[in-house]
Write a structure and sequence with these properties.
The chain is of the alpha+beta class and 139 residues long. The protein has one domain. 29% of the residues lie in helices and 25% in strands. It has helices spanning 11-26, 38-47, 84-93, 134-138, and strands at residues 5-9, 49-50, 63-70, 80-81, 97-105, 111-119. Strands 1, 2, 3, 4, 5 and 6 form a six-stranded antiparallel beta sheet that branches. A hairpin with a 5-residue loop joins strand 5 (97-105) and strand 6. The radius of gyration is 17 Å and the shape is globular.
């Protein structure tokens, strides 16, 4: 992606969380990293992209990646999940928005933010006009 900037890699936090988790598993204490919200797991199963790596906790192949987009210029579409192809289109349509990449294992509940970055062409734009939603129509 040509406009990717201000990238933050969370691999050190991920490594620390995995080290803490190994200690917690030895003592059979529950850990926050294995408590993925059911909605997050559903989103990963239906919209996630299969990761090239295996789950770091149980070594299964069900590690999925989600790209969450946030930004004022996205308007009501902020907070949506987008594929890599959609992100490439969006970086030409919006001035600036943030992408958070989350990895989720649907089997064990592992979830962690692995990266965040800004995309967009840098041109300040108004958010798109608010479109009616099902909630607006049916309350």
């Amino acid at each position: 992606m040509w406009s990717k900037r201000k990238s933050v890699d969370y691999s050190l936090q991920r490594r620390r969380t995995l080290a803490e988790l190994q200690g917690a598993l030895r003592t059979m204490v529950s850990h926050d990293a294995l408590d993925a919200d059911p909605m997050l797991i559903r989103a990963a199963l239906h919209h996630g992209e299969l990761s090239e790596i295996r789950c770091p906790v149980n070594n299964c192949r069900q590690l999925l990646r989600l790209n969450y987009t946030f930004g004022d210029q996205l308007g009501q579409y902020s907070g949506r999940i987008k594929s890599d192809e959609e992100l490439e289109q969006m970086e030409n349509e919006y001035g600036e928005f943030t992408v958070y990449v989350v990895e989720v294992c649907s089997e064990c509940g592992w979830n962690h933010v692995i990266e965040s970055y800004l995309l967009g062409d840098g041109t300040v734009r108004k958010p798109p006009k608010r479109a009616s939603t099902v909630e607006d129509i049916y309350g």
